[in-house]
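FIELD: query
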Amino acid sequence: MSSSSADRSRPPLRQAVTRLLPARSVFGFLALLVVLGMLSYAAGVAAGPVAPGLRPAGGVRTGESTPADDGDMGGMHGMGAAAPRPVPVGAPR
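FIELD: result
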């Protein structure tokens, strides 16, 4: 006996899997993102810390006290932006 028509109309498993997978260009794009991420991480490691004296918030305290350690930003009252001064007509900028 030969196989039924229902068996012939069903695509093989390989064709079904390839239909469900995204296009090759999507895989290429994802690979490019991974490579760029690795390159940017390597560049950041090579550059080192941005501010060498900067410590993480949860870092170990050494016992020395500076104004920045207590969270007070003295003299920082009135932090609103200053109003722009009017420029007289004809004045150089």
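FIELD: remark
Residues 24-47 form the longest helix (24 residues).
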